[in-house]
Design a protein that fits this description.
The chain is mainly alpha-helical. It has a domain of 121 residues: Oligopeptidase f, N-terminal domain (Butyryl-CoA Dehydrogenase, subunit A, domain 3, Up-down Bundle). Helices cover 66% and strands 3% of the residues. It has a three-stranded mixed beta sheet with strand order 3-5-4, sandwiched between helices. Strand 4 and strand 5 form a beta hairpin. Helix 2 runs antiparallel to helix 3, helix 16 runs antiparallel to helix 17 and helix 23 packs across helix 26. The mean pLDDT is 94.
Amino acid sequence: MKTWDLTDLYKGFDEKYLKDMDELEHLYDLYIAFIKAKATNDVAYIEGYISFHEKISGLARTLSSYPSLVMSTDVTNQDAPVYLSKLQTIFRKSTAEDVFFSRYLLGVDLDDASSKSDIITRYRYLLNREQEEAKHLLTEKEEIMYSKLRELSSGSWSRLQGLTTANLPVSFRDKEITLSEVRNLAYDHDASIRKDAYEAELKAYEAIEDSVALALSNIKREVVVINELRGYSSALSKTLFSSKMTKETLDAMIEAMKDYRPQFENYLQAKATYLGHTSGLPFYDLFAPVGKLERTYTYEEAQQIVKDGFYSYSKRLGDFATKAFDNNWVDPFPKKGKRGGAFCSNQPQLKQSRIMSNFTGSLSDILTLAHELGHGYHGEIISNNEPLFWSYPMPLAETASIFCETIVNNHLLSMITDPKERLSVLENSLQGDTQVIIDILSRYIFETHLFEKSEGPISKHQMKEMMIDAQKEAYGKGLDQDVLHPYMWLNKGHYYNAGLNFYNFPYAFGLLFGKGLYAQYLKSPETFLKSYDDLLALTTKTSVEEVAQSMHIDVTQKDFWLDSLEQVNKDIQEVCKLFKLK
């Protein structure tokens, strides 16, 4: 079975890996000694701090990425979690010194320091943010204690969810398959298979719902406790700060999404009628393929479709996809012990990326490849940034991925003249838009309520009830109210990271921001190409609002989001017309 090639990171947990771990620990020791020496000159002290973090950044990313990537495709690997734990021990060594430096920075006049140093000027935005974050630090001893206990608390609960879902056996039509495989059957052309797979999935969750509900409850309770101690008003306020995004922007987007719920209801009801349902669309038919494009694709065909779409946009983007496929940066197929879903792990220190998917041949799987390769392209652009500008905030993380997915989808549509084939491709795209706007809205509503109840334990029954209520509020009459999915909290890994709360609205931001950018591209392709890459490079260096302003977009205004949603509504109107051609 085809797998990704990780040898550019490491060939195993071998002598080179151990040598690099020793080198990382040595760098931390030097850094700790430097910080402990304290400042005799503000400029030199800050420059030294930056220099150490630049050196540590690339090595730490390589060392931690390797075991994480190994575990993502083999959760049974016994070595990877051991080395990740050892790395966490190394990372924690400097907790006291990190806290000391951040507190020290509160008393520094950065205007004065910047006037005397190009390096400080270059990283001024990050230093300003560190000053702000320092206001929420605990004492040095408390920060050390929490960094150690976090691995045993939320970190362990998160691993529990990953292990139980990755290894969960699902009984489907007298055979045992993986959770990823049964969830992928939601795209099957056979209606009875979709329904049976949905029921088998829900039945399988009963075996792990108690333990995973306990995991989620305890993770969110930990988040509430630590945020209160740090002085954040809520988990959402902390997430917005981490996202480099204002509440004004989030509210404008969420309100626009709510305004367009009736349009999505119309689409889902039209699809329900098309499939023969009378009470709205049952959850198991959300991803039912429609039209005449009743085929699956080989992985080789999928690669060619993605490359053709990317080359239709630019040679640089097409060359990137070719490089990723030719150099085996992708681990494409599902297997036992492999995590579900898909992701891209950028490795800017190597000017590479690694992409995991669970490809089964559906049109949706092709768009997923395009999506994750978009993340990889984003990574290629930012690899030219300074080392401490290699990470972008959550909302902007989806910009390039959604853009690339749109490119491939529109490329497919441009080649189709048959109305029923066009329905297949366009409706498949609309399925994705519905997930990223309406289902994300349900997840945002669910997580909001989850935090409201996180003062104490939350039972599996409460979680299922909250999820059903959130789906009803988001989907409205578009879905059959008696056939929803009460376990959508159980299979989404984003809920289980104590540092990534509300990792749902960034997807909606990415989709709508990406569609707004794509509209600009269509108006002036040549001008857009250079400006777009500059925008991607800027995503690591400033706020969401300022990144958008670089393309003359004001994301704090509801009008921008309504304009983007109107582009989706055009697809809804066409799809509803095509449904009637059945």
